[in-house]
Each structure stands twice: as structure tokens, then as C-alpha cells.
């Protein structure tokens, strides 16, 4: 099982043999964009014509809908070579243990059955169906909201 290191900036990092193999980015209702996201914005601002617009349209509403009693998983990714080794589960378990009195929520594309099944396996429940967008296109696509409560 990989060693896991934790950041103070709402990022959980799984490391194995000095290589990052998994990252989980989460938000609390009172947080501002984590430092890593701010750095990403500054570095990539010139690469995207309307990057500020995406930030305002995506992150601002995201942060505003997070309740005092919830943690929002923004992104969970695992290196392709480290998948199916329990890394993602360990990252999610970290949130469950760190915030035992809060519900954990996330949005996911309905068509991403791998992710949906993963979260259902870890006790999440589908609580809402809605139309969202992929970020690559403005075309609306089916999304779901998943929640975990003890």
C-alpha cells in the first residue's frame, strides 16, 4: 500500500517509491481556491482565452453550493499504472476519517460508470440528476450528485 502524504491546502497526495500515484482535491465551504489551483490559474492563464470565465463559471458556483456540513470532492485521480491497487479508496477513506461528522459530496458524469460504481461501492448514494457540462464543450451532459453520510 502506498505511503500517503497530506497537504494543508485541501489536497491529499498518495506517494509510492517517491512518485505521486494519486491526488484528491477537495473543498470546504469556507475555503478559497487552494494554492495549487491558484498557481495553475496563474501559469495557464495565457493558454486559455477565457480562463477567468471558466474559473468564475465553474469554481465560484461550486464553492457557493457547499454547505457548512459538507466536504466537496472536486477531483480524484490515480496514475494509470497504480489503478486497482486501493489508492483511490485510501484517499476517500482519508476524507471519511478526517471529517467524520460531515457529509462528502461530488458531482460526476452519468456516463462515467467506472467512477459512479467506485463511489457506490464506498457507500455513496446518488441524490440528484442534473445537466452539466464537461468543461471541454458548452454542450450539456447528464450528471449526478453523489453523497456519503455516516
Tags for this entry?
150 residues; alpha+beta; Aminopeptidase; seven-stranded mixed β-sheet; 7 strands; disordered N terminus
Description of the structure:
The chain has 150 residues and is α+β, with helices and mostly antiparallel strands. The chain is built from four helices and seven strands; from the N terminus they run E-E-E-H-H-E-H-E-H-E-E. The protein has helices at 35-44, 51-64, 87-98, 113-121; strands at residues 3-6, 11-16, 19-28, 70-78, 103-109, 125-133, 140-148. A seven-stranded mixed beta sheet has the order 1-2-3-4-5-7-6, covered by helices on one side. 17% of the residues are buried.
SSE diagram, text form:
Blueprint: E1 3-6, E2 11-16, E3 19-28, H1 35-44, H2 51-64, E4 70-78, H3 87-98, E5 103-109, H4 113-121, E6 125-133, E7 140-148
Parallel strand pairs: 4-5
Antiparallel strand pairs: 1-2, 2-3, 3-4, 5-7, 6-7
